[in-house]
Write a structure and sequence with these properties.
By secondary structure, the protein is mainly beta. Helix content is 13%, strand content 60%. Strands 1, 2, 3, 4, 5, 6, 7, 8, 9, 10 and 11 form an 11-stranded antiparallel sheet that branches. It is elongated and about 65 Å long. Residues 1-22, 33-39 and 255-276 have low confidence and may be disordered. This is PEP-CTERM sorting domain-containing protein.
């Protein structure tokens, strides 16, 4: 590849990254300025999730990291902006996995729909010898926010789901599981944020702050924890973590179902695990 062409492509990639980051920075400021003006009726929704895995007792034999985004904007009378971003990384030495998923939507006017969906996932495969402990630490954070001006016809929704499972790939059984999940719909009374986990997932620190009710709602949870297992024979394990975030703003309420538009088709992971401990934050 010619040096000039390589330089141009590299600059374009850098420009796109900077542009995307600037848009995510500007969107909340724009929402704040619009919503502070009584003459402008607007809606705003934001959903952000982040996870970090550290202190693995073993180095993975294989790993994978990926992200996916989806945006829908329809404005008949007004302005709507939807932004989605995802980033995932798995570093082998020292073994560390991180990912981030962010969805934001902003609407202004009398008839519009803005939907942002993002997903990020990491996968690590391990081989544990008999009698060798397997362990790691993790921290997870989920942040949801919604704002509307007129509850009679405006809707803002933010949902987030952070899931990880530890799978015995020799028999495809789920050994451990963790889920941090939250939902806010404004207006509405179905808001929640919860933690569900299996017994061997230990939580060392849980902090949360929620503000449910009214035209401005929010929920934030930060979790620090660890997982430790030992096996009597050689075992192949797979750690799979997936986070999904969705933000939606809409005026007015839909006359027909948009369930297909709002579904995370191709971006969902069905986790069938026996979950025994649930904590409502």
């Amino acid at each position: 590849m010619p040096i000039l062409q390589f330089y141009e492509e590299d600059c374009m990639k850098h420009y796109q990254k900077v542009k995307k980051r600037l848009m995510f920075f500007i969107a909340p400021l724009l929402a704040s300025s619009i919503l502070s003006s009584p003459s402008q009726a607007a809606t705003f929704a934001s959903s952000r999730g982040e996870v970090e895995f550290i202190n693995f007792s073993l180095v993975p034999v294989d790993n994978d990291a990926s992200s996916n985004t989806n945006v829908i904007t329809i404005a008949q009378e007004g302005l709507v902006l939807a932004l989605a971003d995802g980033d995932a990384n798995f570093i082998v030495n020292p073994p560390t996995a991180t990912n981030l998923s962010l969805s934001q939507a902003l609407g202004l006017g009398r008839s519009y729909l803005g939907l942002a969906e993002s997903e990020a996932r990491v996968v690590g495969d391990f081989v544990v010898e008999a009698g060798t402990p397997f362990s790691f630490n993790f921290n997870a954070q989920l942040n949801l926010q919604t704002t509307i001006e007129n509850p009679s016809f405006e809707i803002a929704g933010a949902t987030g789901d952070i899931d990880f499972v530890l799978v015995n790939t020799d028999n495809n059984s789920i050994l451990e599981s963790f889920r941090l999940m939250g939902n806010i719909i404004t207006p509405g009374d179905s808001d929640f944020i919860t933690i569900t986990k299996s017994p061997n997932v230990s939580l060392s620190n849980v902090t949360n702050q929620s503000n449910f009710g009214g035209n401005q709602e929010s929920a934030t949870a930060t979790i620090f924890g660890s997982v430790q297992r030992s096996f009597t024979e050689q075992t192949k394990l797979s750690l799979v973590e997936v986070k999904r975030n969705q933000a939606r703003v809409q005026v007015p309420e839909p006359s027909v179902s948009i369930a297909l538009m709002l579904s995370l088709s191709g971006m969902s992971l069905v986790l069938k695990a026996k979950r025994k401990d649930t904590l409502v934050l």
